[in-house]
TrEMBL record:
Pfam families the UniProt entry points to: Aldedh
GO MF: aldehyde dehydrogenase (NAD+) activity
Highest taxon above the source species: Bacteria
Active site, UniProt feature: 204, 238
Protein name (Swiss-Prot/TrEMBL): Aldehyde dehydrogenase
Lineage of source species: Bacteria, Pseudomonadati, Pseudomonadota, Gammaproteobacteria, Pseudomonadales
Length: 459
């Protein structure tokens, strides 16, 4: 691992910064990998999950990162230009310089997407990269390693595979920058390891992203989008709606509408190829533990299982979508990021109490507001802090390449995607070329200089 990093750093230092043409050529190689291996990608992800929609995987694991790479390629030349800055006497500008070698640690929920989305910004900035994919998706990780090795030299882009011990050693390497996507608990360990070498980090973590249904919302449309979004990847998305605030008088209507939505888009679940399995038995047991604890606490659980199927008889790890009616904050389902097809619903009287609740908890990666009350929408945006917001839908802000993507506080540090990714993985070098004239900082401090300084010190 260290030998690969040393080779990449030596290659970086021994040559001129990569030209725009050279960076585009590297991005084109990544684009070619996604296009040429799209079917293998879909099959590898399906093997890792046991069951996930091939169509969904083709969109999120192939098309989505492909579009990121293409948009990066199209705008790269403009991003690379020196940026003039205002200066009274002389010239000042910022040059964006490659950092060197960037480590990329990716999660299991979107194993291919996260690799290539990260690579878009890293390659655009002129860096080299070493990637550590998740051990929870061995088929996808092995495929990524083969794909990368087929078109990139090891001193350009390399892949390191292995379990938690390898991951820990990886994060302790003296990279020039480290991009980590994963759980907040692991993010703390990553930051601690990176600190030993003063490696700057971009941490894309998670948290409990709240969803608010305003009394001004199109209620049926809101429920449909929330349920459909929640069940993308069976809720195994860092931006999945984690709990929903519903006007207290509409709680029963939400449950009834959710049943209708599930029956329409997933008339069956257990053998439905469009309904994703939980990734493994460990996470299935974790989610079942949330339900068991809530049930013992007297929380009403509403299983959304249109065909009444028996999930105990399955060979995989699917879990029926389940609503939890107003669970208490002491329960783990309201403390941990759920990362599964469970959705707590919380009644509210006023928007003020919703805002107070959100602000009393760690800042989330996403927040979703459904409604057409402009004043209320502005209040929510002004009074809450989250990594990003989607209005009248869920999750979709992450797909807008011109927006920065990242968290705040416990949900992350730094952001990337598009121009923000290019800048995250670049060094913004300040350059100043002074104009000719007297230097107020340099002796001898003669009387004319004293008078000039005195004249400038004013209100």
């Amino acid at each position: 691992m260290r030998a690969v990093l040393d080779r990449q750093r030596a290659a970086h230092l021994s040559s001129e910064p990569l030209s725009a043409e050279r960076r585009i050529e590297l991005i084109d190689r990544a684009i070619g990998l996604l296009v040429d291996h799209q079917q293998a990608i879909v099959e590898a992800v399906r093997a890792d999950f046991g069951q996930r929609s091939d169509d969904f995987s083709r969109v999120v694991e192939v098309l989505s990162p492909l579009m990121s790479l293409k948009q990066t390629k199209a705008q790269l030349l403009g991003w690379m230009q020196p940026e003039p800055r205002h200066c009274e006497r002389g010239e000042a500008w910022v040059e964006y310089q490659p950092l060197g070698v960037v480590g990329i640690v990716t999660p299991w929920n979107f194993p291919v997407n996260m690799v290539f989305t990260g690579l878009a910004g890293v390659l655009a900035a002129g860096n080299r990269a070493i990637i550590k994919p998740s051990e929870f998706t061995p088929h996808s990780s092995a495929l990524i390693a083969r794909m990368i090795a087929s078109v990139f030299a090891e001193d350009e882009v390399a892949v390191i595979t292995g379990g938690p011990e390898v991951g820990q050693a990886f994060c302790a390497q003296p990279f020039d920058h480290l991009l980590f996507t994963g759980a907040t608990s692991i993010g703390r360990q990553v930051m601690r390891a990176a600190a030993e070498n003063l490696v700057p980090v971009t941490l894309e973590l998670g948290g409990k992203s709240p969803t608010i249904i305003s009394r001004s919302a199109d209620f049926q449309a809101a429920v449909q989008k929330i349920i459909a979004g929640k069940l993308h990847n069976a809720g195994q998305i860092c931006l999945a709606p984690d709990y929903v605030f519903v006007p207290e008088e509409s709680l029963d209507d939400f449950i009834a509408s959710a049943r209708e939505v599930i029956a329409r888009i997933y008339p069956s679940l257990r053998d439905n190829p469009d309904y994703t399995s939980v990734i493994n038995v460990r996470h299935q047991q974790r989610l079942q533990g949330y339900l068991d604890e809530a049930r013992e606490a007297g929380v009403e659980l509403i299983e959304l299982n249109p065909a009444g199927e028996d999930f105990a008889a399955q060979t995989g790890h699917k879990l029926a979508p389940t609503l939890l009616r107003n669970p208490g904050d002491e329960l783990k389902v309201m403390q941990d990021e759920i990362f599964g097809p469970l959705l707590p619903i919380k009644p509210y009287k006023t928007i003020a109490e919703v805002i107070d609740y959100i602000n009393a908890h760690p800042r989330p990666l996403g927040l979703y507001y459904f409604g057409v009350d402009a004043d209320e929408q502005a209040l929510v945006l002004r009074r809450t802090t989250s990594g990003g917001v989607t209005i009248n839908d869920v999750i979709k802000h992450v797909g807008v390449e011109s927006l920065p993507f990242g968290g705040v506080g416990p949900s992350g540090m730094g952001s990337y995607h598009g121009r923000d990714g290019f800048r995250a993985f670049s060094h913004a070098k300040a350059v100043f070329k002074p104009a000719d004239g007297p230097d107020l900082m340099r002796p001898p401090y003669v009387e004319p200089l004293r008078q000039a300084v005195t004249a400038m010190i004013c209100r």
